[in-house]
Write a structure and sequence with these properties.
This protein has one domain: P-loop containing nucleotide triphosphate hydrolases (Rossmann fold, 3-Layer(aba) Sandwich), CATH 3.40.50. About 35% of the residues lie in helices and about 25% in strands. It contains seven helices and ten strands. The strands form two sheets. It has a six-stranded mixed β-sheet with strand order 6-7-8-3-9-10, sandwiched between helices. The protein binds adenosine-5'-triphosphate (ATP) and magnesium ion. The site of adenosine-5'-triphosphate has 12 residues, from strand 2 and helix 1.
């Protein structure tokens, strides 16, 4: 039986720097996110959203407090195993797409599977299925520079989905898009959630956040709602 609680933060704090220039990016955050939830995190620039996302994505560890992913204390997991967990359990989507410019859409989507050591044929099959899911199978051979911003973000979502992670983390995925493409990306994330994936989405945009099942507000490093 998989745990019902996927994400559990207990009194988590995170600082940057030290001495006179210490920045308390996150202060005493406690939070639970259940499997299958769609949670939006909103807050002003500098409030700590990306810092929180980096922690949830096991890219960064809490300074104090605990982060349990799937019931396991992340700070006790050795780095080598942690990178396997990142690769298998988490799909990342970024504001600036972060596609590899010299690789076509299918090659970009395959990357997480390449790191898993899957053979070429199996990788390509999964990548094409993921591209189909985001409506871009006809663009599989295109380089990112030949795609619109909205299409590039759909490729990035296909990459995040490839390999069936349980959690999708999206940091301002609509931030660089016009409102129509942004709405399309949001619909796609909602579809993905309906099919059972847990989605955590960071946004500045209240309207976008409202379509999520749950809105978490962060202000000056604290969770306020
Ligand atoms: N690597 C770092 N080194 C030092 N300070 C940092 C670092 N990353 C973030 N900060 C600081 O931590 C605080 C939170 O930053 P964070 O990037 O989490 O904000 P954010 O809510 O994602 O902002 P934005 O909406 O602009 O992306 C800010 O004061 C920021 O300046
Ligand atoms: Mg940010």
């Amino acid at each position: 039986m998989p745990e019902k609680i996927l994400i559990q933060l207990e009194n988590m704090s995170k600082t940057y720097g030290g001495g006179n220039s210490i920045i308390h990016a996150l202060k005493d955050i406690s939070l639970e996110i259940m499997r299958g939830e769609f949670a939006a995190i909103i807050g002003q620039s500098g409030s700590g959203k990306s810092t929180l996302m980096n922690t949830l994505g096991c890219l960064d560890l809490p300074d104090t407090g605990r982060y349990l992913l799937n019931g396991r204390d992340v700070s006790r997991i050795p780095e080598k195993e942690l990178s396997v967990i990142r690769n298998r359990e988490i799909g990342f989507v970024f504001q600036s797409f972060n596609l590899v410019p010299g690789m076509n859409a299918a090659e970009n989507v395959e990357l997480p599977l390449f790191y898993r050591g899957l053979d070429r044929k199996a990788r390509r099959e999964e990548a094409l299925a993921a591209l189909e899911k985001v409506g871009l199978s006809h663009r599989s051979g295109h380089l990112p520079s030949r795609l619109s911003g909205g299409q590039q973000q759909r490729v990035a979502i296909a990459r995040a989905l490839c390999g069936q992670p349980s959690l999708i983390l999206a940091d301002e995925p609509t931030g660089n898009l016009d409102s129509a493409s942004g709405a399309e990306i949001m619909r796609l994330l909602l579809d993905i959630n309906r099919e059972g994936k847990t989605v955590v989405l960071i946004t500045h945009n209240d309207k976008i956040a409202k379509s999520a099942g749950r809105v978490l507000k962060i202000s000056d490093g604290r969770l306020i709602a």
